[in-house]
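Quick question, first post here. What does this chain look like in 3D?
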Amino acid sequence: MQIHTVIELARELRLSGLADALELEVKHPDQDDLPFTERLGHLFLAEKEKRHDAMLARLFKDAKLKLDAAPEELNLTKARGFEPSHMRELLKCSWVKHGWNVLISGETGTGKTWLGCCIATAAVRQAVKSKYYRVDDLLYEMALMRADGELLKFKAKLAKYNLLILDDFGVTPMAQQGKSDLLEIMDDRVGSKSTIFIGQRPYNDWHSFIDDPIIADAVMDRLSSNRYHIKLTGQSRRKKEASLDDLR
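> Answer (accepted):
Ran it through. Tokens below.
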């Protein structure tokens, strides 16, 4: 059987990684000197790597992270308000397996969303099924699903994400139904799924923001343990003096 026939057969069997590797071998015939099992191993490894890359691409597309934040670009210093050794542990994402939560707070422009997306990127790279939402958008979508009678299906889909990133928490007041929905989300995830909360409000200000003693107590109780709070400090990273040189 000729090599081009084998390549076509591999593509028919949806072994595109293996087929690509075979085509590459045709261009580099020195591979012919390798033992059969070693060549075969290289081909299957190429297929495995391509499937892994495709799986990660699907996870990133589904996660819809707001920012493309690479963990290797993170400046691990105490100047921004976090402990470098703790951050290295967070980027390993072992806490996700235990259903722990991360709270990120700080003034406007201190890099909260970037940091949250940075941690989420590290998680997705480790094949953690993740999803990003602005809190207002999530609550609005839940309201639409409720009106269409699809809320239970939507909540079941939401529960499948091992990591949920909720951004801009505390920016706008929540309606009573929104507060109840937030509690339901936390109740579905407590102890088994992880959530990253991102917002300007520090944790000790959440109770007054929720402004419903019963719901606030319930939400705070579900976050009373197994959480890590990052309080970012410093001036806004968005501030920059305008320069006419930037227009050239």
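The chain has two domains: 3-63, 71-231.
Strands lie at 101-105, 130-134, 163-167, 194-199, 227-231.
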